[in-house]
Amino acid sequence: MPIGFRGGLIGAALLCPLVLAQTIVQPGPPGQPGKVLASAAFTLPPPAKPDIEFMQAMIVHHSQAVEMVDLLRKRGANAALKTLGERITLSQADEIEGMKQWLRERGQSIEMGAMMHHHTPGMDMSKMASGDVAVMPGMLSPNQMKVLAKASGRAFDVLFLTGMIQHHTGAVDMVDDLFASGAGQDNVLFDFATDIDNSQRAEIRIMQSMLAKITRKDKK
User: Fold this and answer.
1) What domains are there in the chain, each with its CATH number?
2) What is the pLDDT of residues 18-71, one digit of tens each?
């Protein structure tokens, strides 16, 4: 994958093994191989619960973005938007695999627990049951996804951009919440979460510009 895609580098970092080998080598005479003096393995400390939950939740979050881009391929009209969509789905699909591997390497489930859903205090649970409420920040609700799946052409593009801006903003909020709690100090996860924050903020600005251009054309 090209280096320009964040998943290419961060995904590789996420795939680093849990158990690392540490070898001590004594240099040999000129032209001769060195001598291995010792070899030992050490294990990374277990991840913090908020780190585990963040990764599990972000897998679900990323998966919806990939689903949205699948709809964009079939129902969208704007070529530049489709190109951006491919960039989003390539990087996020790669990151999903990296997050799953990060969890597996640390003996954790890749599935998000039922109690992890980010419900807002005072939320009307009848709306949750009706499909009007998403399971976590920024994600489109089931009903929003149904509306998106039925749209086409320019109307789809507007809904997609509005929804993906919302989606990216939710991911940024999840990163903010992670760091605000004092978690996210695992070196690999810290770099990964920071990259999500930086890259998705940049993509939000791009999509806001695209949306403004499309809506201006609609007004003419």
Assistant:
1) 46-219 (1.20.1260.10)
2) 444 445 555 656 666 666 555 445 566 789 999 999 999 999 999 999 999 999
Q: Is the pLDDT of residue 134 over 90?
A: no
Most distant pair of Cα atoms in the chain: their distance:
79
Handedness of CA 63, 64, 70, 72 (dihedral sign): negative
Residue 131 pLDDT greater than 70, yes or no: no
| Cα 84 to Cα 196: distance, rounded to the nearest angstrom | 16
Provide the token pair at 76. 């969208």
Closest CA to 55 of 107, 119, 8: 107
Residue 131 structure tokens: 């499909």
Q: 9 is written with which tokens?
A: 């580098």
pTM over 0.70: yes
Alpha carbons 200 and 196: distance in angstroms, whole number = 6
- What backbone phi and psi angles, to 5 degrees, belong to 42? -135, 155
